Batch of 3 targets.
Target 1
Amino acid sequence: MQSGKKICIVGPSKRFISGISYYTIRLANSMSERYDVSVICFRQLLPTFLFPGKGHVGKDISALDFKSDVEVFDGMDYNNPFTWFKAYRFFKRHDPDVVILQWWTSSVAHMHLLLKLFSSLDRDTKVVIEFHEVVDPFEEAILPIRLYSKFMGKSLRKDLDAYITHSKSDQQLVAERYDIDMEKIHVIPHGLYDQYGEPLESRAAKASLSIDEEFVILSFGLIRKYKGIPYLIEAFEGLPQEIAQKSRLLIVGEVWENRKELLEQIERSPYSDKITLVDEYVPDDMIPTYFSAADVLVLPYLRASQSGIAHIGMSFGKPVVVSEVGGLKESMADYKGTFFVRPESVDDIREQILRQFGNTEKYEPPVRTWDKIVEVYEDAILGN
């Protein structure tokens, strides 16, 4: 049953689809069970030619969508004031009590600020920012973006009603980096991405991918420098030959950084014939196939606030070998299928992969359903 409270969630549309798009949809749909929910989407985030994943922009690769009772404005464009005016009219018509801004990149900071301005026109509207990233090293490395981010971000974060992170480690980082009172920063867990249905039979999934090997090591998600893929390849190369010959290293995800170096590393590997790189943003209907074919999911991140990929892996009950960094130390700690490794440790990764060889156990996902997540929002933010 819905309460009388009205919530507006602000996040990216499916045009520039990413994990935050999925998060926005899942959160809005779950909150709509209890509240009157509207959504304002950022549609065009930046010039498309500058986007590393420009190949999938605008493609219909996900069936996940907002429920019919969630009214959506799709959307605001970074360079089109007419869309900002239309967003204001949508905002004014819905007159929300609480606005939840999803923060993951500096490129849309000016649109976030506009939404904050819209909210300030009604002194009773509470504004909350939810951090999916504390800072993006890629943006930090580019001087104009770093200066833009520093100026716009400071204005955006000033005098908000509350802040959300998904781990205590990020709570500490946000408090220290942005000089925010720790009591105003609420830690709310990340819900599982369990929208992909039941797993397939493992052998059938492998066969559909033309994989003959009995042991599949899966790396999944956008390939960026901080994902640590070179360390995984080195660990794979260190496997005993009799195990490596029975294994397939399956690296699946759109390559955003260091593509040339990655291809060269694979090409010169002594086990190059056992390594498959699928350089694409995977459509939702293929995700069950990849995760069902996998015998172990390996995420050798060098840093991380959270990982949507880890949440998919947990929903499929897979063993997950993951670096003990950032928010992952908390979000993965209560999953019995978690096997932590030190970041950049080739030896740790190799040892944990070997431990999973022959392991057929399916692990029970943690209780992190979206209705439970909304209850935490309610206790921390919405009920106040």
Note: The first strand starts at residue 6 and ends at 12.
Target 2
Amino acid sequence: MLADAARTVDAPDVVIAVSRYGERTVHRGGVAPAGPVPRELLRYELGSASKPFAGLLLARLVAQDRVRYEDRAADLLAPGHPVHPAVRAITLRHLMTHTSGLPALPADFYPQAVPRWSTDPYRGYPADRVVRAFLRARPRHRPGTRWHYSNFGVSVLGHTLAAATGTPWEILLHQQVLGPLGLAATLLRPGPADTDATGHRRDGSPVPALDPGGFTAAGAVRSTPLDLLTFLEAHLARPPGPAPADPAAPADQTLAAALAEVVRPVLRRGWRHGHTHTLTWFRHPSPYGPVLFHAGATLGQQVFLGFRPESGLAIAATATRRVRRGVPFVATAYGLLTETL
């Protein structure tokens, strides 16, 4: 079944990794010959699938009473700085749930990005520029009234949490999420030689590694399919019966509380508000109970993460080309999650 699904994805490298209550199956495929390093051991660029990591970090800091969801971002990021009243009202929850009223990207992002849109659009927009753009923003809608997907907002969240804790984002994420969950192969920057997957354009040419600039919280995570399964498994309920001894289970109750928090629906969105959204996951109904998922893409790679809490199923799928023709990559992975396994 996984092989059939992988064959529909026109990409040099494809990995579909599945876990059901911790029992794993991994399929490797793709139209290119396999390299010296097994595909499931390479790190892939997650793009927007980095956001569940940011959401879990926020939930854990809240569980530790270090911040609150209703804290105002501008007050934490730049106390006393004059901002528009709508910006003053934006909370950490608004930023994470895409209800801040901010656009997808700052307006002044595009002039510097367009000349290198197909190679390196984010590098020229560093962290301090993201913060300045937020402090002078004029939100399109009153915070909390509309859902609008925003890399800008989640990036501001990352800088705000770093300011609130006095800890750089990369260190904070490692201390609070990556380290406690045992995600040793997950990084926020390129790893040593031959450890990262190479993305490709439609014509097969390689794409340079992503430099996220100041948008680190929104899209900088790189991880292996096996680490991604570990991350997803942490969100899943255990099978019925006595809980087995699990040395990998989170010992810190704030992490357990955060994992429970991020699967809870917090708002409705979509056509006729038919879909729900948690703090960080898209949540849809299925014949097997609710499914939670998030996809991501960079210039030359795509990733899909999803799980079904009620049946202990998790899927991490990666591809080293953005697949737009034929059967789309995300639709293939989503179909496995909602219809067949």
Note: The longest strand covers residues 14-20.
Target 3
Amino acid sequence: MSGWSTHDIPGQSGRTAVVTGANSGLGYVTARELARKGARVVLACRSETRGREAVQLLRGDVPDAEVELRTLDLGDLASVREFAARLPYERLDLLVNNAGVMALPYGTTADGFETQFGVNHLGHFALTGLLMPALLAAQDRPAGARIVTVSSMVHLLGNIDPDDLNSERRYRRWLAYGRSKTANLLFTHELARRLAAAGAEVVAAAAHPGYAATNLQTAGPRAEGRRVAERLMALGNRVFAQPAEAGALPALHAATAPGIRPDSFTGPSLAMWRGAPAPSRRAPWTLDDRAGERLWAASEQLTGVSYDALKA
């Protein structure tokens, strides 16, 4: 796996991919490289304006790219349902759950969930469930179907609190972010188990970018007008972080490389920080079957999305 790069991505012709948060950063790079290899790529973006700009930029980078924009607000379950209902493809080969928010001041989604938990986990949980029939319809293709959920090394900050998923008792932005990223890994763990139990040839895997320079780091301070913190985050991006092109490699590897194992976790090889894709360390609580089952049940209840396609 050492030295794996975008040159090693297998051809993606004939495959359809959805990438959330594809208008910038890791999502844009992921969508661009999939399109470069021949995939039809749906850019699922909250902002139509930024999404259109991304489509224009991508077509400039990859003139023959087959890409399209569809709006998706993961912080609004009505938007998630509308996106899934309007997606015109009966088969979906790849879903990359990339979009997210990080260390924001306390807030809630349109449905009343704490923003980081609601967007990073619940929105993607609902989206994946609603797109599951299309993913299962693609499982008989040679490369199969995959679901890649982007977590973070910050998941090591803490396990979820099943009795306070929405951080209503006490809110600490970085802990809430870490817990939402733990939820991503628990979701992948339980999803992989359920896919296997259903005999489905769909791989659910996770990845993280290490420390990659994106707009996530500065979004929180900017939202609160904390200019010093915003500048410090921007400086950290320039000095310590790897570029988005490198940060996207673990997700691209999990999405396209042969032999990816269900419930695997791919990240940068050097101390989870930077470098070529490699198996990554993960906290033991992200492999807890009971915790995965409890989170799944709570997520179904909160979103109203049941994975009926896996129960048939």
Note: The first helix runs from residue 25 to 36.
